Amino acid sequence: MDMERANEIFNSPSRIPVHYKGKSIWIAELNPQSHMVKIKDDLFSEEVSEVPVTELVE
Hints:
Layout lengths: L2 H9 L6 E3 L2 E9 L4 E5 L8 E4 L3 E2 L1
Antiparallel strand pairs: 1-2, 1-5, 2-3, 3-4
């Protein structure tokens, strides 16, 4: 995935499925400068991981 698409998904009012290493995730935050995104296992999870946007799959 690229940062532009990640931003569209992040700002969408709809739930758009995104996966990281085969797992369904939520995009929690975008960092366009570093091309990294913070992800969570679900919307209410407090655990956050930072991964390259290119590793996300729609």
